[in-house]
Amino acid sequence: MEKEADTARRRFLARATGAIAGMVVAPGVILQQVARAKPADEPVTSAQRWGMLIDTNKCQKGCDACVQGCVKENNIRSHYGPATDSQWIRKVEVRDRNSGHSFSLPMMCQHCAHPPCADVCPTGASFRRADGIVLVDRHICIGCRYCMMACPYKARSFVHEDIGPEEHVPWVPRGKGTVEACTLCVQRVDRDGANAVPACAEACAADGHDAFVFGDLNDPNSRISQELAKHGATEIRADLGLDLGIRYRGI
Fold first, then answer.
1. Can you give the pTM of this predicted structure?
2. Which residue of 57, 107, 199, 224 pairs with 215 in a disulfide if CB–CB is 3.0 to 4.6 A?
């Protein structure tokens, strides 16, 4: 049964035909595109666990290159301005009250090994792939927002407005009345594997900061694993025991 559920969820990102326009999922929920990723006969496995290391020492205050890179890649701007944009990644300014030390921290879905969002989702729309990427299947999301309440990182957004066909990109199925969050640019991961670079990391590097390292946490030879072995890192709210895919240095 679990295998069948994983296969059904996998189809969310494995449509061989590319896009289906104007799909009505439920009253008030309309999806304009279906993402195309790996073919269904190439399922993801737990051989990889994709993750990100973010060095806050290299993250510059006032810089939002990572945010803009995400917005451009996934076209998540709102009709009504930045105040109503979905925030797949946001910049948080953090200050230690005792020492006065402050730093800028990019915050997104932490891609937990034990995601609370999936635990509370009544339909299974929130789920974790075998390779560690946490996603939302908008086709079965009913917009209850339990996952938003359960997420300790406030990493999910609710789509309040209609999204026209011209606002979509083929790899991001979006619809009014659904929840969405960072996907670690799953479309790039499924296309490029270990060579994938999420849009936030790409934009940060292009801006000259190179604060992001993406890769396979299960591969001891990957850059991210070598960096973690050499310098270590911190999980936000490690006390929750969620085993995060996003790690930070300098916090």
1. 0.81
2. 224
